[in-house]
Design a protein that fits this description.
- The chain has 101 residues and is an alpha+beta fold.
- Helices cover 43% and strands 24% of the residues.
- The protein has one domain (2-92).
- The chain has helices spanning 46-74, 78-91; strands at 2-5, 11-14, 19-25, 28-33, 40-42.
- It has a 3-stranded antiparallel β-sheet, covered by helices on one side. Strands 1-2 form a two-stranded antiparallel ribbon.
- A hairpin with a 6-residue loop joins strand 4 and strand 5 (40-42).
- The two termini are 15 Å apart.
Length: 101
Amino acid sequence: MIKLTDEHGNATYISPDNVTAIAIRDQITNVWTCDSGRPMTVKETPEEVTRKILEYKLAMVRYKESQHETVKHHGDPIYLFECAEDALRNLAGLEDSGHDQ
C-alpha cells in the first residue's frame, strides 16, 4: 500500500497494483483504481503518485529477490528483510504511526 493525501488532507492508502490511471485536470490529480468506477482526488501530483507506485514496486522486487541472495551470501536473511520492510513501511507512510507492527 502507498499513502496518498485526499482533498481534505486525510491520509488514504491504496494498492499500487490496483491503479489503472492517473490524470490531472484543472490542477487536480485524479487516481482511478480497478475496484472503483470513479476517480479519487489526491493532493499529490501525478508525478509524485507515479514515483510512489514505482518505488513500491521496486521495493517489492528487491524484497522478493533478497531472500535467495541473502541466504546465499550471509546465511541469515533477517538484516536485509528488515531493511526492505523498513523501506516498504516508509512508502506506505507507516514510519510515523507509532503503532506496533
